[in-house]
# Entry
Amino acid sequence: MNIEELKKRKQELGYSNRLLAEESGVPLGTVQKIFGGETKAPRKQTLEALTQVLFRKENVYPTSASAQPAVLHDARAALPRDARIARPRDARTAYLYDIQSDLLSDAQPALLREAQAAYRIPEKHPGDFTKEDYYQLPDDVRAELIDGVFYDMASPTRIHQGILGGLHIQLDACVQKHAGECFIYMAPSDVELGNKTVVQPDLYIHCHPENETIEPLKVAPDFVVEIISPSNPGHDIWRKHELYFRYGVREYWIVDPRRKLVTVYRFETEELPITYTFEDTVPVGISHGECSVDFQKIYARVKHFYE
# Structure
């Protein structure tokens, strides 16, 4: 059984990386690297363990879209209407539809449940947790709290960090031209959006000098960039899209390293997203034409990972 066959089967069954790790006994980090394309030649015993789970008798589902597991169908149906992306106007945005099978994310993962017990965090149902619970998590637990639900955060890849560093360099140069008006931060940096939501955007800019304190930012940033994690692209594409739109983020960029695409939402002025490639220079809408990001320079920082 090769990796591509396993990827296809995992997509058909709607398995998250965490669920597959728990059922196969393969470490979550290993599963993420295999299905994210970082590990090209897994060990034979690892492939066998994954194969046993994905192709066991009870997991033999028809492959048509109409016969996908009910849990995946229910997850899609539960998405808020304004979180769904309208049908794209051109082929360059159509790739957004290819990721629906990755929507599932394991809320309240085992690691967080263990931390909850160890640190005496109150027993609550997903949806009931608050920022007070979030700040009781141990420092080595990477998670976000969205609408009272904890979501596990995978460690970033080196491609992720290379892209993030390049973005920060170019965007910071623009921010410094207007020193004192706007401020730029990279993860981990907490942003509180109400009592039940604390997120860590990969990069954000806020233009609220009165909120520039040592405390977490307590208003919506003006500009946010998220770099898609291969383990759970739906978190940035759907869940955070809806969240940022709801709380008044003015501009939201989703950077997709695998497809070398940048999807830009300008919530104030445009109903549909605009998609750019890693060969484009992308204007920063909130700067009114003063700033842009040259993605050819960013790609130059990480292209060796693609070779």
Observations:
- Residues 158-177 form the longest helix (20 residues).
